[in-house]
Fold each of these.
Amino acid sequence: MLTVAGLILLNLATLAFFRWGKMPPRPEGPRKAIIERLHFDDSQVADYEKLIAAHRTAIGAKEAEIRAAKEGLYQLLSSDDLQAKDSLIARIGAIQQDMERIHFDHFKEIKSLCKNDQADLFKGLAGDLADYFSPRRGPDGPGRKSAH
């Protein structure tokens, strides 16, 4: 239950940041850094672009689900009937878990694009993935949030 509450607070902080924060556009995200670190050839880059498109679609759908669940959750505040609160909070947590699985699977797919001589490069990248997608750090320096 504490984990779910933490995820909700994290999501609210993220939404507030993107709504009111002044974050410069980052069209490249970690895309360029990953291509460079793994030394992808043109064919691999083309396949990677397809993975990015599928990943964005899947994550976008989950983000829409979270938004809908949060709208339902916060609409409960206008009434005295809060019975659905716990199930909506659990739903938000479950969707967040789905999103983490989608991210993990996305990187497994990137790994599958690697040739034998790129395996060690991917291992190094895998060790840095948390930093690439951390709200405090990213491939371009502290305070930058990375996304595809």
Amino acid sequence: MKKIAGIIVTLLVLGAAYGFYLYNKPVSSIENQTAFKEISADQLVSEFDNDETMANSLYLDKVVMVTGEVEKVIVKENTTSVYLSTNNMMSSIICELEPDLKQNLKKGDRVKIKGVCSGFLMDVVLVRSVIVK
């Protein structure tokens, strides 16, 4: 009986240690990942406007490379959000850059940004984004 209890306790400790390791494992940068699709900011917003369900099935949680013109850049603490303008006055692309990624972007700059599409509210949001040179 003591052997069984010892084995169970050992398995529980090993399982907890493995879970702790996975929880604290750093997220890999998407810089070296291949983009699922390269698309313009206008085209991406248009696809979500026309059929959000289909666009979600295509882009949600996938790495997308978007080309567009910088509308504005917002820096809060260690987070930088780059807004790409589109032909749709109500929507833009919001690219949340990876933490501590400093960029000297200004309104009107043409950029290519690669990020993970997290969906569409009023804007299409890309997270963990990096600027492609």
Amino acid sequence: MSLAGSSIPTHEEIRTVVTDFYAKTRAHPDLGPIFADHVADWKPHEEKIFRFWCGALLRERGYSGNPLQKHLAARNVTSDHFPAWLKLFDSVLTANLPDKKAKLWSTLAHRIGKSLSFGLEYAGRKTGDTPPKLSSFSSSQ
């Protein structure tokens, strides 16, 4: 996956996507209550996620954190939440970005989602359990 040229979202586009996504997340029947349990002040949360995506997409420094540890500590976040998260995120990308940028960012988001989902399932398993299921993700991403 190349992050070169006009396929890279700009700072303005990243901020727009993050803001729109969290506005929709707060209203989402499944995701909204989970976030409400953990985010009291949305502005700093959105800023942190903005910095995360600037790092992931633009290779900028400025994000500090461990997303897997944060999701594990939440205790009410499971791998089953990621398909809904990704579906909502994809809809926000499609609504706010040109197709090429939306596809690039979606591909990266799905990779991160799979990794987090795997990490949550792996951490929740006991020795000898079966491997985590990743079948809930579309193979087209």
